[in-house]
Amino acid sequence: MAFRRSRGSGLAGYSDAALLLARLVIGTFLVWSVWDNIQNSPRMAEFARFLAGHGFPYSKWLAPLSVWAQFACGVAFVAGFLTRWAG
Q: The whole model's pTM is what?
């Protein structure tokens, strides 16, 4: 994949590269931010207690669901899954 820059267009010619970079950074951040909850069950329990403390019902089920959904979305962003459809 080559990123072509049109002559005289300024930075607008790099819009594809900028979108790719943003997608990779955001996806990597999503995966990185939940990795400790996935790897460490005491951290997942701490997150469940956090949710319960803020009044969320069923926090023991919502905590893993939330963590795994964020992980899956991060992987999907990095892989580019449905990004053309979404944008």
A: 0.76
